[in-house]
Specification:
Layout lengths: L7 E7 L3 H12 L1 H8 L2 E8 L16 E2 L2 H6 L5 E4 L6 H11 L3 E4 L2 H17 L3 E3 L10 H8 L5 E7 L2 H13 L3 H11 L7 H4 L2 H15 L9 E2 L7 H9 L2 E12 L4 E12 L11 E8 L3 E8 L3 H19 L12 H8 L3 E2 L21 H8 L1
Parallel strand pairs: 1-2, 1-4, 2-3, 4-5, 5-6, 8-10, 10-13
Antiparallel strand pairs: 7-9, 7-11, 9-10, 11-12
Helix pairs in contact: 1-12, 4-5, 5-10, 7-8
Length: about 375
């Protein structure tokens, strides 16, 4: 008797922007190898878009496009739904519908997870669906898998890193060329590294959303952005970067998640930091991301790679599609749920979130004063 043909996994994409087109392109380019490794066929059968006539870099059969995104979620023949539309309104509605019907959802939507992750994970726990979100933090760096699987035996005293490529690009150019924030920002927009409205990136909120996800994975607690110290890079000047270099430092926008094991308090923050030039993260430049994990068993681990862009993010989405295929074939899905007592109860047990008033740190101050006797003494007295 001839062997039966392998099952074909049917995939629907919600959104076909930069990332969606990257997923289509790379999945099709590497389709034979992926199918051989996974033992199933892979087919993107439906793609939800806003405009059927829009010109796109990647060409797909028109018959696969639809403006009815709900029809993709509700189609019982579609196994995996990739939510790539962003935002927290329509994306939340569609994600909840998919999970309630027992579907597998793959996403890169950090804002949605940051604001509604607790509810979405509870839906997974109660239903038959799964939720994969590797692409939500640091693009092509497998930080979610590292925390969720590779370092599951560890507790983390400190997690810190560069989580926003736009800010890192701007600070790198400012440091190397002595140009102002506004000048480099204009270049970043022209090159596509910054959005027309740059505030989410340069004011620190994009990195804050990612820090919320990492804090939950590492410590089992959801930290709201309003419970964090969040500061962007708008006020950084070429003078700051020059003085930092003279002192043996560089300036990076860092997301920092720290845990005090003596009090079992966790705190997350995002702000520009002076990093010693010898620190490996200090050499992570341009649009690259880097994350350092300080763990009690494995010690220090550093991951560096592209944190955004079509290819890096598509790589993470396709990685989650592969994990989703494994889950659909009956293997346990490595998804963390707030109520998963067997695996993660110890992470959140007794842990509380520190308030801003409890946090101390060191600061860099730059003062412009008149060069005359007694000025610095007066500054010190007033401080």
């Amino acid at each position: 008797m001839a062997p039966s043909a392998p099952r074909t996994i049917r995939i629907g994409l919600l959104g076909f922007g930069t990332v969606g087109q990257g997923v289509w392109k790379h999945l099709h380019n590497n389709r034979a190898a992926l199918e051989r490794r996974l033992g199933v066929g892979l087919d993107i059968v439906r793609i939800g878009v806003r405009d059927l006539k829009k010109e796109r870099e990647v060409k797909v059969p028109v018959a696969r496009l639809t403006t009815d995104l709900g029809s993709i979620v509700d189609d019982p023949t579609i196994d995996i739904v990739c939510e790539l539309i962003g935002g927290v309104t329509t994306a939340r509605t569609l994600t909840e519908r998919a999970l309630k019907s027992g579907k597998v959802v793959v996403t890169g939507n950090k804002a949605l997870i940051c604001e509604h992750g607790a509810e979405l994970f509870r839906l997974v726990q109660r239903g038959r669906g799964h939720y994969f979100f590797e692409a939500s933090v640091a693009g092509g760096i497998p930080i979610i898998k590292t925390l969720r699987e590779g370092l599951i035996a560890n507790r983390f005293r400190l997690i810190y890193g560069i989580l926003n490529g736009t800010c890192n690009y701007i600070l790198t150019r400012m440091a190397k060329e002595g140009r102002s924030f506004q000048e480099v920002l204009a270049d970043a927009k022209r090159l596509g590294y910054a959005e027309a409205d740059e505030s989410l990136d340069v004011d620190g909120w994009d990195a804050a959303h990612k820090a919320v996800i990492l804090a939950y994975l590492a410590h089992g607690r959801w930290i709201k952005p309003k419970q964090m110290l969040v500061q962007g890079i708008r006020e950084i000047t070429p003078h700051d970067l020059s003085y930092a270099r003279e002192l043996g430092y560089t300036i990076k926008l860092l997301a920092i998640i720290s845990r005090d094991f003596s009090t079992n308090r966790v705190f997350a923050r995002v702000h520009p930091c002076l990093l010693p030039a010898r620190n490996l993260l200090a050499s992570v430049d341009d649009v690259f991301n880097g994350i350092c994990l300080s763990a009690d068993v494995a010690g220090s681990t550093l991951l560096v790679g592209r944190g955004a862009g079509q290819d890096a993010t598509a790589s993470a989405v396709i990685s989650d599609i592969a994990d989703a295929v494994v889950a659909l074939r009956g293997a346990p899905a490595p998804v963390i749920c707030e109520e998963d007592a067997d695996t993660y109860a110890r992470l959140g047990s007794g842990i509380s979130i520190a308030s801003l008033a409890e946090i101390t740190g060191r600061y860099y101050l730059r003062l412009t004063v008149k060069d005359r006797p007694g000025v610095l003494a007066e500054v010190a007295r007033r401080a």
